[in-house]
Amino acid sequence: PYGWGTGGIKITASVIGEADVLKVIDQGADDTTNAVSIRNFFKRVTGVNTTEKTEDATLIQTRHRIPETPLTEDQILIFQVPIPEPLRFIEPRETETRTMHALEEYG
């Protein structure tokens, strides 16, 4: 549903592989209902290992927070956001926001 962060789940589902280790952060914590549910879902569906340690993860799905531990080039950070287009409330037309980004026109 719109605004429930399903985009983050879709991105995670599209990039996750057998060798990945998944970490899920929700509201800055690993033990929230959403974080545990998402982590368990991917573990059950894909069979990948999961972790609560940033340094052990290859994929990190997060909502609102960036891990405090510096990431490496081998890690992928996936943001779960309700509205991925920051200009959506300023310009509702997708064609126009794409043009604005292409021209770097934000004034």
TrEMBL record:
Q: Answer whether the UniProt record assigns the keyword 4Fe-4S to this protein.
A: no
Q: Which domain of life is it from?
A: Bacteria
Q: GO molecular function, one example? A: lyase activity
One of the GO biological process terms: organic phosphonate catabolic process
Q: Cross-referenced InterPro entries, in alphabetical order?
A: PhnJ (IPR010306)
Q: Which UniProt keywords apply?
A: Lyase
Q: Name one Pfam family in it.
A: PhnJ
Name of this chain's protein? Carbon-phosphorus lyase complex subunit PhnJ
**What is the protein's species of origin?**
Enterobacter hormaechei
